[in-house]
Design brief:
With 219 residues, the chain is an alpha/beta fold. It has helices at 8-22, 28-35, 53-60, 72-82, 118-131, 148-154, 188-197; strands at residues 44-47, 65-69, 87-90, 103-109, 132-143, 157-158, 166-172, 178-184, 201-208, 211-217. The chain has one domain (8-145, 185-217): Vaccinia Virus protein VP39 (Rossmann fold), CATH 3.40.50.150. Helix content is 33%, strand content 29%. The longest helix has 15 residues, at 8-22. Bound molecules: S-adenosylmethionine (SAM).
């Protein structure tokens, strides 16, 4: 039996405040990339922007930013971080509310692994390619749950009815209910295949903490 798709927007809405409390600091692989970037023609589009911790860094550096996320409550938190002049849209990574070639750069950090259907993950990568202006760069990352130590530390368990790479990872907020997040196990090779299949060129890939990261380029 195919498992019922989980709506990540609902999941993240239900844990938004507690999630924000543990994700206040931007990850250095993102800040390093933003800090090394020259002037951009278009905005930095943060796909699955969450609480806006990375978008805020771009905005503080004088870049224009656009955030897209399915979680209304995380977007409300992001608004506090990025200020009034940054566009934040409720939207799906599989069908971005952004014009073709409009983005100077794209971030898709820890979002693609939340998409349950293989076609959906492909669509999300195609959307990164579509909105990224030719010559633009994107950073894409996934949680390294193919590493047994990482999976163990996350308390990841296989989802009933899944194919073994469909996992549930509990979110345990102190004093709150435990909420399962859907996570797809994606290895560095699978990530590279997904990105190349979507028309992007992988410039560099590496591990940062418990994340597989790829820097890609739109030809
Ligand atoms: C683990 S959080 C990462 C947030 C942010 N990128 C960061 O690094 O702090 C995953 C985020 O992706 C969002 N998300 C999951 N699936 C999505 C989808 N299909 N479209 C847009 N956002 C999605 C969730 O609502 C959540 O905010």
């Amino acid at each position: 039996m195919t498992p019922t798709p989980v709506n990540p927007g609902d999941t993240f809405d239900s844990i938004a405040e507690a999630f924000d409390a543990t994700r206040a600091r931007p990850w250095s692989f993102v800040t390093d990339w933003l800090e090394g970037m020259g002037p951009l023609e278009g905005p930095v589009v943060d796909v699955g922007c969450g609480n806006g911790r990375h978008l805020a860094v771009a905005v503080q550096r004088g870049m224009r930013g656009i955030g897209v996320d399915l979680s209304v409550r995380l977007l409300a938190i992001a608004r506090q971080r990025v200020g009034r002049d940054t566009d934040l849209f409720i939207g799906d990574a599989r069908d971005l509310p952004i014009a073709t070639d409009a983005a100077g750069a794209v971030l898709a950090v820890a979002v693609i692994h939340h998409i349950q259907e293989a076609e959906g993950r492909k669509d999300a990568v195609s959307e990164v390619r579509r909105v990224l202006a030719p010559g633009g760069e994107a950073v894409v990352s996934v949680w390294a749950l193919d590493d047994p130590d990482v999976a163990l530390g996350a308390h990841a368990r296989p989802m009933e009815g899944g194919d073994g790479a469909d996992m549930l990872v509990p979110w345990r907020a102190p004093g709150g209910p435990t909420v399962d997040r859907y996570l797809r196990v994606i290895s560095p090779g699978e990530l590279a295949d997904l990105l190349v299949g979507g028309g992007l060129e992988v410039v560099r890939s590496w591990d940062a903490g418990a994340n597989h990261v790829a820097l890609v380029h739109a030809p």
